[in-house]
Amino acid sequence: MIQVDCPFCGKRNLTEFAYGGEAHIARPKDMAAISDAEFARYLFTRKNPKGAHQERWNHAMGCRRWFNAVRHTVTDQFWATYKVGETAPLPPDDWDGVLSKSEFEATTETEAK
Ligand SMILES: [Zn+2]
Q1: From the CA of 30, how far away is ligand 1's center (Å)?
Q2: Distance from Cα 56 to the centre of ligand 1, integer Å
Q3: Which residue stretches belong to region Disordered (predicted)?
Q4: Tens digits of per-residue pLDDT, 13-26?
Q5: In terms of Cα–Cα distance, which of 10, 108, 20, 25 is closest to 71?
Q6: What is the CA radius of gyration of the chain?
């Protein structure tokens, strides 16, 4: 069972949450000044990585608040969740998406000793 750590409520089952697409998509400051191609790129073009992805999530069956998460697109493992406006806690480049952030950090601390 996959659990998501809502920044407001704590860990809950994935079934309580709704995916909201890629995070950190900035709306152009002057919509009238951009070309149709730039508007189409803003509206439709999204990353599709095989690995860590920054996403928007909504706790639809809980507090109903939006937050961001870093999730591995192959394993569905969540690295971290964070409130909108906070800096994304990005995983290291060698994160394979198997371990969560706390498990990964515990492993690297053990290896360092
Ligand atoms: Zn919540």
Answers
A1: 34
A2: 13
A3: 94-113
A4: 999 999 999 999 99
A5: 20
A6: 16
